Amino acid sequence: MYFSGWWEGDLFAGVEDKLRSLSFRLYGLPPWWHGTRALGDMGTWPQEDITYEVGLTHGDVLNPAEPLLEVLSALPIDSSDDVQWDLRMRLRGEIKARPDLAGPGPKRRVTVTVSVEGRPVQLEGLQRGEVWVAETQYERQNLALLARGWDSEGIELVEITDLAPYLRGRAEMLQRGRHDPEPP
Question: Are 58 and 66 in contact (CB under 8 A)?
Fold first, then answer.
């Protein structure tokens, strides 16, 4: 969820137009959850001007002491090999960002059950310490969760149609990131 130099220029120019034209739905925590929200990772194929993945973060990305959950909504990945590679890469990124939460030892397979629009949905993933990633196909799209210090029990997801809190949170994060030192 953190990549070096992200505040040096907004890689998300024209993001509102891109978000309005998505061919998949975005999911996040319900409006009653009170905490920092921000637009997170966003994957695009620039040559085709297609956005294939959008992450909505919950928690303060710039505060490593705070639990963090990113909900990634994406176009479906066809191959299970691609999904496993994707999970390993995401877990590696999260462990690198918070090695203190990952702890020593091997990663292990996990099954996480969350509520999506009131329905129980199982996600398969990997965990090491308090860092975990899990992914599934949900209604003809991919849904992934990336977590650091966030308990998997009781997560409720809803479709997000009002992106204003996430866009506002991203703008605030960019402003703070210009003044904060680079995380370790």
Answer: no
Read off the tokens for 174: 């960019």
d(CA 27, CA 161): 9
How many Å is the Cα radius of gyration of the chain? 16
pTM: 0.81
Query: Where along the chain do its domains lie?
Result: 12-178
Chain centroid offset of residue 162 CA: 17
98 — pLDDT class (breaks 50, 70, 90): low
CB 25 within 8 A of CB 53: no
Q: Are 101 and 140 in contact (CB under 8 A)?
A: no
pLDDT level of residue 20 (50, 70, 90 thresholds): confident
Pair of tokens at residue 27: 């999911």
